[in-house]
Amino acid sequence: MSHGFCARALLVAASLLAAFSLAQAQTGALLDRIKAEKKLVLAHRESSVPFSYLDPQGRPVGYALDVCVMLAKAVQRSLALDRLDVSYLQVTPANRIEAIEKGRAHMECGSTTNNAARRQQVAFTVPHFITGARLLVKADSPIDRIDHPALKAAVSTRNTTPLAALRKVDFERQLKLDIIEADDHERAVEMVEDGRAQAFAMDDVLLFGLAAGRPDPKALKVVGKFLTTEPLAIMLPKDEPAFKKVIDDEMRRMIYSGEIQQIYRRWFEQPIPPRNVALNLPASYLLRDLWKYPTDQMP
Questions:
Q1: What is the pTM of this model?
Q2: What's this protein's family per the entry (predicted)?
């Protein structure tokens, strides 16, 4: 066998392998599984109002859930499926990343910040919200900032960026706060209400939503300057470019068509469960600017 023939054979084999790899990438292992099983799992939260929470009947609802339902329909269209069974998995801040990493859910529909550390484990699509961490305190509290003398104990939710920011500020300013970790947002609010903590550090939009859902919404208030700037985005499995492209393309379509703005107004400007109270939070200038040039690339 000549060297020329061997070289040509190797070139042909390499070309076939490259073509196979390209075809596989265009479909993607995850999309193949979804197409075969006709099943998609959405991870949701228990009390991340108004993004992802349980209504009085125990059903998962919220802004991020509505966005994810649209994304699921896009996956169904892209795979030309006659049906796609969508199921729900409740997660917490502590296990949400693992749920996506281990394949127990295909999208996490909540209030998760897209940051560099998390991008080592998972992927994110275009943000659906931009917020920042502030403080929730009792309405009669004098506390109006993180370094107020009356603030001795502060709580935040385990495995969240506001908790990390709270620790960072406490260290840098030598505040010597007693920092408490709560399992979820609901428990953190209860700690403020019963006096175990004087403030709850969390994304301000979540704080407004949590306060609106309490028996007496006026008993709590949101105070202080932003401790962080948080781009919140739907979390996706890492290294699934074909699946991510379907999701990213649909996010951009919803933004450019104005559909996501309609979903936003439903959850942030109109009365919502459980108490039919409106948050009255129009889209911030940061979010409006992001939606002019939607991207998943976050600093």
A1: 0.76
A2: Belongs to the bacterial solute-binding protein 3 family.
